[in-house]
Amino acid sequence: MHENFLKTGAFSLVAAAAFCALFAGRASACDKGKLQRLLSGTSLSSQAKTSAAPLASAIANTATDKSGQTINGLWNVTDSSQGQVVDRYFDSWHADGNELFIDATPPALDNVCQGIWKQVGPRTFKLKHVSWTFDQDGNTTGTAIFHDVVHLARDGNSFTGSEDVFLYDLDGNLTNSFLGDVLQATRISVDF
Questions:
Q1: Higher local confidence (pLDDT), 133 or 181
Q2: Predicted TM-score (pTM) of this structure
């Protein structure tokens, strides 16, 4: 699935490290670590172990089903592609329709990402992340857009879903896509 991405050379660890060194502290290139893992064909386990929503939309995003469960909260998420873990992250879904995650990518590679979400059905949610892509010299080459659809379990303590990644050049032309990552998450609670 990720073979074409590997051949494009649109993103490299060297470019990511150079870009992060130049723009340390900026979260404008979310999911760079995941893109690098897709590019290199490595799984996370093979690496070292280590928009404001309108008020009406925010109210709709806090809708609950009959069990009273919402997606709002903190999640421990595992992202797999073709049976290989490609990312792990702590993911916060906020009642205002915003989302923030910190993944297992080293901080120097910018491991913070933002997204927006909305409820689209009973216990079903769509999430969208937007990220920049770079060439080997650290120049911006386009964007990566991550589309997630997740389904909250009836008890509200886990969700499963899928993720599709779409790469675009600076003119907005689709250059590549990776479809069907599998997401599995468990709610993190204050249980100490």
A1: 181
A2: 0.68
